[in-house]
């Protein structure tokens, strides 16, 4: 009978450790999933949306076109050093 009690105690202890390990792994998995969801939310706020980027590039192109047209119409005095 002593052998059976010892076996049952050892088996119970092993099952307890296995259950504890599975619980720790399950909790870590849940925490990791929550961290990934939080990271996805955080990352979407830090990047420029495609529409905003296109609007900004369009504005920059318009400004460059205006600058280019002003440069084309500008008449400079001729540099006297170039006449020599």
What can be said about this structure in brief?
This protein has helices spanning 2-46, 50-73.
Structure commentary:
This protein has helices at 2-46, 50-73. It has 84 residues and is mainly alpha-helical. It has one domain (2-72). The chain contains 2 helices and no strands. The model has no long low-confidence stretch (mean pLDDT 87).
Task: List the SSEs and their pairings.
Elements: H1 2-46, H2 50-73
The H/E string reads: HH
| Individual helix count | 2
Structural class: mainly alpha
Q: Radius of gyration in whole Å, from Cα? A: 37 Å
**Count of domains:** 1
End-to-end separation: 120 Å
**Total beta strands:** 0
Key structural traits:
82% helix; 84 residues; mainly alpha
